[in-house]
C-alpha cells in the first residue's frame, strides 16, 4: 500500500479517501484472517453468509496490492531506499509467519514478500513501458491469462500445505514467484492496476478517473460476475472458493477471480472516493502496523471456536467484532502514541539512508 514511500505518504496524507481505502483494505485482511482462524467447519459452505465473507475477504489482498502499486510508482525512492524497503518487507513477512504458526511456516512467502518484490521491479517496469507508450496492464494481463489457460500447472495445486511450505530454497522460490499464497505471477496484475490508476494523473480528490473506460470496465465486470454466479447455481456448482473446484478460485488466483476482483476493487475505490468514509482514515494511517499486529491475538485465540464449540453464527459475530474493533483501536492508538508504529519506524530509518 502507499505506506511504502516517504514521498507518497506526504502526497497522500491529506487525501481522505486514500487513507480510507487503506483502512478498508487492512480491515478486510483482518476479517479474512479471523475467518480462517475461527472456522468451525471442515467442509465447504455454500450459504449466503459464506459467500459474503468469502467475497469481501477475497477483495482484501487485491485492494491491498492495488493500493501498493498506486503508491510505489508515485514515489521518488532511490534504488538504495527501495532495496532497504524490500528487505524490511521480507523481514516483516517472517515476523508475521512466526506470530501465526497456525497459518504459516517461518519462511512462507506472503503478501508482504510480494510487496518486497514489487518494490524492486514495479517502478522500473511501469516507467519503462510508459516511456515506450505501452499499456503494461493490458499486455501483462493478457499474457498471464494466456499462460494460465495453456499451462495451469504453473500455479501448482490448491493444497494449502504446499502453498505455505518452506521445505527448501527451491520451494520457497517457487512459492514466491508462482505457487504460493500471493506469488508475483499472477498478482502483479493488481499492482499494475494500481500503477495504471496512479499514472493517469488524476486530481487528488478523484484518484480513480470516472471516465467512460472506467464505467465500461465496471459494467462489463459486473455482468461477468452475475453471469458466472447464475450459471454456477444452475449447474449446482461452487461459484467462488479459496481452494475448492469453483468458477472463481483464490489459491491459485485464476483468470475469473482476477476479473471479478478487479471489478470489486474498482467498485470499492469508486464508492470510497465518492463518500470518503473518514471514520476509516485512522485505520488507514497505520495499516501496516495493524496488519503486523493483528495476527498476535488471533494466534493466542486460534482454537476458541473448538474450545467453546462455536457455530457458524457465533464465529461470524466474533470475526465481525474483531475486525471492527480495529477502527476505534487505531483512532486511540494515533491519539495516544502517534509516533509508535511501524510506519514511523520505516520512515525514520529510510531518511537516515
What does this structure look like?
There is one protein chain. It is globular and about 55 Å long. The two termini are 21 Å apart. Helix 2 runs antiparallel to helix 4 (60-72) and helix 2 packs across helix 17 (312-336). Helices cover 69% and strands 1% of the residues. It is mainly alpha-helical and 353 residues long. It has one domain (2-351). The longest helix is centred in the last third of the chain and has 25 residues, at 312-336. Mean pLDDT is 88; it is low at 4-12. It is built from 18 helices and 2 strands. The chain has a two-stranded parallel sheet with strand order 1-2.
Strand order of the largest sheet: 1-2
The general outline is globular
Largest sheet: 2 strands, parallel
Overall radius of gyration? 19 Å
Please indicate the percent range of residues in DSSP E strands (runs of 2 or more).
Answer: under 5%
Total beta strand runs: 2
Q: What is the number of helices?
A: 18
Order of helices and strands: HHHHHHHHHHHEEHHHHHHH
Structural class: mainly alpha
Mean pLDDT: 88
Q: Helicity range of the residues? A: 55-70%
Distance between the termini: 21 Å
Amino acid at each position: 500500500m502507499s505506506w511504502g514511500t516517504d514521498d507518497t505518504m506526504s502526497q497522500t496524507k491529506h487525501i481522505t479517501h486514500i487513507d480510507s481505502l487503506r483502512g478498508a483494505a487492512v480491515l478486510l485482511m483482518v476479517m479474512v484472517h479471523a475467518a480462517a482462524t475461527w472456522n468451525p467447519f471442515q467442509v465447504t459452505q455454500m450459504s449466503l453468509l459464506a459467500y459474503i465473507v468469502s467475497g469481501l475477504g477475497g477483495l482484501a489482498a487485491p485492494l491491498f496490492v492495488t493500493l501498493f502499486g498506486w503508491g510505489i510508482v508515485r514515489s521518488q525512492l532511490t534504488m538504495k531506499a527501495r532495496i532497504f524497503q524490500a528487505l524490511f518487507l521480507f523481514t516483516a513477512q517472517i515476523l508475521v509467519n512466526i506470530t501465526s504458526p497456525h497459518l504459516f511456516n517461518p519462511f512462507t512467502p506472503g503478501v508482504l514478500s510480494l510487496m518486497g518484490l514489487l518494490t524492486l521491479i514495479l517502478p522500473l517496469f511501469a516507467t519503462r513501458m510508459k516511456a515506450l507508450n505501452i499499456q503494461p496492464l493490458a499486455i501483462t494481463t493478457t499474457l498471464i491469462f494466456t499462460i494460465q489457460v495453456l499451462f495451469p500447472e504453473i500455479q501448482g495445486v490448491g493444497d494449502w500445505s504446499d502453498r505455505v511450505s518452506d521445505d527448501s530454497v527451491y520451494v520457497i522460490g517457487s512459492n514466491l514467484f508462482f505457487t504460493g499464497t500471493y506469488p508475483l505471477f499472477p498478482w502483479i496484475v493488481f499492482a499494475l492496476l494500481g500503477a495504471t490508476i496512479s499514472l493517469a494523473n488524476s486530481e487528488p480528490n478523484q484518484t480513480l478517473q470516472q471516465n467512460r473506460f472506467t464505467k465500461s470496465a465496471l459494467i462489463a465486470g459486473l455482468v461477468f460476475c452475475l453471469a458466472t454466479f447464475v450459471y454456477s447455481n444452475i449447474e449446482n456448482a461452487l461459484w467462488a472458493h479459496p481452494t475448492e473446484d469453483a468458477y472463481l478460485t483464490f489459491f491459485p488466483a485464476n483468470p475469473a477471480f482476477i476479473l471479478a476482483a478487479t471489478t470489486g476493487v474498482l467498485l470499492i475505490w469508486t464508492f470510497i472516493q465518492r463518500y470518503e468514509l473518514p471514520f476509516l482514515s485512522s485505520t488507514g494511517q497505520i495499516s501496516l502496523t495493524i496488519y503486523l499486529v493483528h495476527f498476535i491475538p488471533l494466534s493466542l485465540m486460534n482454537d476458541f471456536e473448538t474450545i467453546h464449540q462455536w457455530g457458524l453464527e457465533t464465529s461470524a459475530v466474533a470475526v465481525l467484532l474483531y475486525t471492527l474493533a480495529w477502527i476505534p483501536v487505531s483512532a486511540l492508538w494515533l491519539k495516544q502514541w502517534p509516533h509508535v508504529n511501524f510506519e514511523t519506524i520505516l520512515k525514520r530509518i529510510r531518511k537516515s539512508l
